[in-house]
User: Fold this.
Amino acid sequence: MGVDAPLRDARFLVLPLPYEKTTSYKKGTERGPEKFIEGSLGVELWDEELGMQTYQAGIHTLPILTSPEPADKFFPRLQAEVERLARLKDKTLFCVGGEHSLSQATIPAFAKFHPGLSVLHFDAHADLRPEYEGSPHNHACALYPASRFCRIVQIGIRSIGEEEAHIVDAGRVKTIPLRRPPDLPSLIREVLRSLGKTVYLSIDLDGFDPAVIPGVGTPQPGGFSWFEGIEIFRQVIAKKTVVGIDIMELCPLQDTVHSELAAAKLAYRLMGYLRAKDSKLF
Ligand SMILES: [Mn+2]
Assistant:
């Protein structure tokens, strides 16, 4: 991000993953991490909600990690790297994509160190297809592997394929569809009740309304407002132990920058919530 601390002093790590192989609608998520970092230059360092200089906790941006290899070659390598980073003490890793299929490598890496890990999956799409367009590593399958071994709570969901419908809200998956503007307090209660104690946040930016972040690969009308989204994340960070975060599917638009600015501000705000929790402010 715009301000960089040495790795050893950093409370937060940002891993840029400009990997794009299977986007099915609009291309461009491979430029997501680069634009996210540009967007971070437009984020005010004083967090006006929390009243703190969050960056003073230390933010370190790691070298870009990507590959021309297909997912079956690249994902094991990525998973090994994420395992290494997940082991570092007193740091929280933010994986910035890139397409959402990357979560097929990031979530298992964290699940290995956190038995009983559950996932809050924020997305317009259920992403539960076992296979799509000939590949199990398609972005439409992002959460399917994790659904076999983790509790998953899905919010923002407003686009589901027929073959996903039988997995939605079944087994380890709790799906909370978004069909109308949410009753936020009851939604948050349900989310907190459904998640375990240790949580991984897998955020597809299209969970937000396209008016908030239009620059995503597969936008859907509806979605959470900015304030609804960050209130959900604030409560989850306050009440649970959040161990790692994905921010995926930023697909920058040509003539506007507000998607990347919003994505970077989201990451910075989440860092602020984690730091506020460190300081027992909530
Ligand atoms: Mn999505």
Q: What stands out?
A: The beta strands are 12-17, 46-47, 52-53, 59-61, 92-97, 118-122, 151-157, 173-177, 198-204, 241-248. The helical segments are 32-40, 71-86, 103-113, 144-147, 184-194, 226-239, 258-278.
